[in-house]
Amino acid sequence: DTILYENYWDNYTDSTWVASFSMAKSFTAALIGIAIAEGKIKSVDEPITNYIPEMKDTAFHHVTIHHLLQMTSGIKFTERYYNPFSDAAKFYYGTNIRRFIKNMKVIYPPGTHWEYKSGNPQLLGLIIERATGKTVSEYLEEKIWKPMGAEWNASWSTDRKNNGIERTFCCLNATALDFAKFGRLYLNDGNWNGNQLVPAQWVADCTTPDTTNGGVKFYKYQWWLNQGITGSYGCDGLLGQRIFVYPEKKIVIVRLGKGDRNQNYFKLFGEIVRQL
Asked: What is the CA radius of gyration of the chain?
């Protein structure tokens, strides 16, 4: 493996933590796959109320882990980052996500509407916590971060200091090199130098478009597919945070920063790999 190009600006260095924003969703999905492989979660077809029985809306009995992964749960959730009254803002700034989750509602029949809503991966985070008996951070450290030999420590923001829950829809803080390592892990089908960290079938499930009737072909299990060039997949975070993987040429590209500068980075990455 070779780093073809690496550069930093604006006082960023190889040891600078950068907030992942929504790239964290893909890490959350990886932990779900690992928990299933370990038997801590039975399958993606389990109702989420097996793990979160306190949901007041009885419609959640029909919402499965698959629905959360695929953003087809039908939950009511306003995804407006710059509206201080939106649900996304309440998750980002609030100090009791568990209480908020308990009162969430379902407004569409599960599996019928694809809508990008950060409430879905946040529910996945709570499922990971309940299924494994560990915090999401602990599980990430044990199953991925240490085994893949991360260059630096990382942190995952929580809603409160004591007994908090990780904001699994966002807010994993790490370095560019370690985000790149996660991309390499998926590039190699979940295998890190002979050690299978994420099940290969799970990686395939996450990166293969849903071709069923009514399926979404550009998004699968918290990953964006075929963005910029056919055959690619990637993580997408606010302010231009990106992990881009192109298996055909065994390329991983990471871009982090303070803003996206109105740039379509996946399209740019597609143009770059065409020239390699």
From this structure: 18
Ranges of H-type helices in 189-274? 200-207, 265-274
CA 77 from centroid of its chain's CA atoms: 17
Distance CA 56, CA 47 (A): 14
CB 219, CB 206: distance < 8 Å: no
Spatial separation of the C-alpha atoms in residues 200 and 7, rounded to whole Å: 31
Please report, for the chain, the start and end positions of each structural domain, with discontinuous segments joined by +: 18-274
**What pLDDT, on a 0 to 100 scale, did the predictor assign at position 18?**
98
74 is written with which tokens? 């039908």
What architecture is the 18-274 domain classified under in CATH?
A: 3-Layer(aba) Sandwich (3.40)
Q: Out of 73-82, 131-140, 170-179, pick the least confident.
A: 73-82
End-to-end CA distance of the chain: 15
Residues in a beta bridge with 235: 243
pTM summary value: 0.97
